[in-house]
Amino acid sequence: MASAELEELRARLRKALRRGAVLGMQADGAIELQPRVLVSAGRFLRDQEGFDYLSNVSGVDWLGQGQFEVVYHLYAMRRGERGALGEGPAGPLGPLVLKVRVPRDNPVVPSVTTIWPSALWQEREVYDLMGIRFEGHPDLRRIYLWDEFEGHPLRKDYVPEEA
Question: CATH class for domain 3-135?
Fold first, then answer.
């Protein structure tokens, strides 16, 4: 997304949410949000701005800062459709990147599965490998590792058992 368009979108998002909900825009264009407003921001972006597709949810371990970050990549697939006569831009709009940070000692983020169903398995993956819990997820359980597996292997402080 062009920086001017991104800045306008950020202003509309800031206006739609509570004061202090948008923490800022990072150098890469990502919009950093308070976790408590993630669901309302997601609904606004889907319903008002057309970001109808969540392509990726990932977790980042900021061990030295005592935080985890959850990163969301959104696209407005329909905004880029050409009309019947071929007018308008081609291709989807995006990615729009959202980021939320949570403390390592209580890594809980609201689930966005009710907004973007593609989050169902992606949130489970982040939970399984990083240990970040998604409050409100309808089926939050391990997706790759067996239930008895101890720990979360993509955390920077994970130490595997000796074989």
Answer: alpha beta
The widest CA-to-CA distance across the chain, in whole angstroms, is 64
Q: Is the peptide bond before 103 cis (omega within 30 degrees of 0)?
A: no
| 107-154 residue pLDDT tens | 999 999 999 999 999 999 999 999 999 999 999 999 999 999 999 999
What gap in Å lies between CA 29 and CA 141, rounded to an integer? 32
Measured in degrees and rounded to the nearest 5, phi and psi for residue 3 equal -65, -35
Q: What is the pTM of this model?
A: 0.90
User: Other CB atoms closer than 10 Å to residue 36's CB: what's the count?
Assistant: 15
Across the chain, the runs of DSSP E, i.e. the strands, are 22-25, 31-33, 53-62, 67-76, 93-103, 108-110, 133-135
